[in-house]
Design brief:
By secondary structure, this protein is α/β, with parallel strands linked by helices. The chain has a single domain, classed as Vaccinia Virus protein VP39 (Rossmann fold, 3-Layer(aba) Sandwich), CATH 3.40.50. It is built from eight helices and twelve strands. It has helices at 36-44, 49-54, 75-86, 106-113, 120-129, 160-165, 190-199, 213-221, and strands spanning 2-3, 13-16, 19-22, 27-28, 64-69, 93-99, 136-140, 150-157, 171-176, 200-208, 224-230, 237-243. The protein has a nine-stranded mixed beta sheet with strand order 1-7-8-6-5-9-10-12-11, with helices on both faces. β2 and β3 form a beta hairpin. The longest helix has 12 residues, at 75-86. It is globular, with a radius of gyration of 17 Å.
């Protein structure tokens, strides 16, 4: 773990009907009604993870790398990890890399995830290795009993663009999260999209809850084919797509 000697200020969260709400960005961390279903619909399904992880042709010896912009409460990570184990992936590693400028405290993370008891074992495993809120890179191997699959989590507590610029890996799937673009523009900057393209391998996929025009145009501008689809619940539209080539 590389970090400085000081700690970050944790995200300021209010719980509204047990749903975490960011006072800084005036937005909820996840849907109060759907939660894991929202993660499955947007991030797991639109990145086609069930098929990709179950296909012998795609089940290679190299690690499958998911990168997330905005770790938040860790719900997306836990849902991806749960699916990975449910599919009983053998002899391959899932490496989940997430950046977060405003990390959630362990106490708030535990409270936020407690509303999903079906994921309790994964929540406890994440809490057991959740790092101190010091800036820098933290890599852990949370354990949940499974077959022979390995899960590695790398959390980078830093500005998203700067954090991604430190990476030298090829990402297979992107979870583009981080609150609504109008309320958190730094998470959707031109610099960030350039880093996303730099790190994407040909055929890398992305999904995001937003369908804002600035996000679609920016992703197209760095080489992604972008599609829209109806969102879940009250969300009208979301977008997803595939990395084609550097423009």
């Amino acid at each position: 773990m590389n970090s400085t000697d000081h700690f970050l200020q944790s995200a300021v969260i209010q719980f509204r009907d047990d749903t975490p709400f960011s006072t800084e960005f005036d937005d909820f961390y996840f849907s109060s009604d759907y939660g894991p279903q929202e993660t499955d619909y947007i991030y797991l399904q639109r990145n086609d993870l069930r098929r990709r992880w179950s296909s012998p042709a795609e089940n290679k010896d190299t690690a499958f790398i998911i990168a997330e912009t905005g770790f938040g409460t860790g719900l997306n990570f836990i849902c991806a990890w749960h699916l990975w184990n449910a599919l009983n992936i053998n002899q391959r590693q899932l490496h989940y890399v997430a950046v977060e400028k405003h990390p959630v405290s362990k106490a708030d993370l535990a409270r936020a995830l407690s509303r999903w008891p079906q994921l309790a074992g994964y929540t406890e495993a994440l809490l057991a290795v959740y790092p101190p809120l010091s800036p820098g890179t933290h890599t852990v191997f949370p354990q949940v009993q499974t077959a022979q699959s390995t899960v590695k989590l790398t959390l980078i507590f830093n500005d998203a663009s700067e954090a991604l610029s430190t990476l030298h890996t090829h990402v297979d799937a992107w979870f583009l999260d981080g609150f609504t673009p109008s309320r958190n523009p730094d998470m959707w900057s031109e610099a960030l999209f350039k880093e996303v393209a730099r790190l994407s391998r040909p055929g890398s996929t992305f999904a995001t809850f937003t369908s804002a025009g600035i996000v679609r145009r920016s992703l197209q501008g760095v080489g992604f084919k972008v599609e829209k689809q109806p969102g879940l619940g009250l969300k009208r539209e979301m977008c997803f797509g595939t990395f084609v080539e550097q423009p």
